[in-house]
Amino acid sequence: MIGKLTGRVDYRTSDHLLIDVRGVGYLVYCSERTMMTLPGVGEPVALYTDMVVREDLMQLYGFTSLVEKEWHRLLTSVQGVGAKVSLAILGTLGPDGVSRAIALGDWGSVKAAKGVGPKTAQRIVLDLKDKAPGLMAMGGSLPDAMEGPDLDAVVEPVEAAAAAPKPARKSAAKKPSGAAAASAGALSALGNLGYSPADAASAVAEAAGDNPEADEAALIRAALRLLAPKG
User: Fold this and answer.
1) How far, CA to CA in Å, does 80 sit from each of 9, 83, 89, 94?
2) CA–CA separation, 145 vs 192, rounded Å?
3) 169 lies in some domain
4) Which of 19, 48, 101, 148 is the most exposed place for a label (fewest CB within 10 A)?
5) Rounded to the nearest 5°, which phi and psi values hold at 49?
6) Residue numbers of the chain with a pLDDT score lower than 50
7) Geometric angle at alpha carbon 167, from 161 and 169, rounded to 5°
8) Quick one: 57 and 79 in the same domain?
9) Is the distance from CB of 47 to CB of 30 less than 8 angstroms?
10) DSSP code of residue 168
11) Where in the numbering of this chain does the Helix-hairpin-helix DNA-binding motif class domain appear (predicted)?
12) H/E stretch holding 125
């Protein structure tokens, strides 16, 4: 299985490109949105890939991030959704847009992609609605293909935090659980989608106040509704 390619762009069209990896050319199909972000001919490129193998076909699909690749995997797991439809959805909405649409049950946004009918859009939302919050929460920690995480940038703040004096507490610190854990997870997911800490905290607090028993997925959906543009 080919999971990632790093090489140079040999040529490119509207929906695929040829990547030269040490003299071997790999034909990779991408969404329209992804194609717009890729470099020109002769320039270096790196893509995460998913390979489809059938009796009459062996084809590679490329993604600039692991989040995009994971959404492609989930979308194509839905009955009636093939790679072409998945790329159309990702090209129209992007990974973050897919996360929001499915978390909110907004099948109308999914239907806006070329080749997606209302029944298919509704099936996608129904089948994947429980998967969206987890993927949204993971989004900020998954690297782009061209550059992995900077270990120094991760380790140094952690070491500094560990070395910093801790305020005295009457009892040992415990990991958040229950409602606190759900709110923390929802805040993280909203932050990964680009919402400011203040807006995210306000929406999560309001959502939690309306439904104190809500789990993380329910809080994310409710907060997204509160943050959605009005009118």
Assistant:
1) 32, 10, 13, 20
2) 17
3) no
4) 148
5) -135, 155
6) 141, 148-164, 166, 168-176
7) 125
8) no
9) yes
10) P
11) 73-92, 108-127
12) helix 118-128
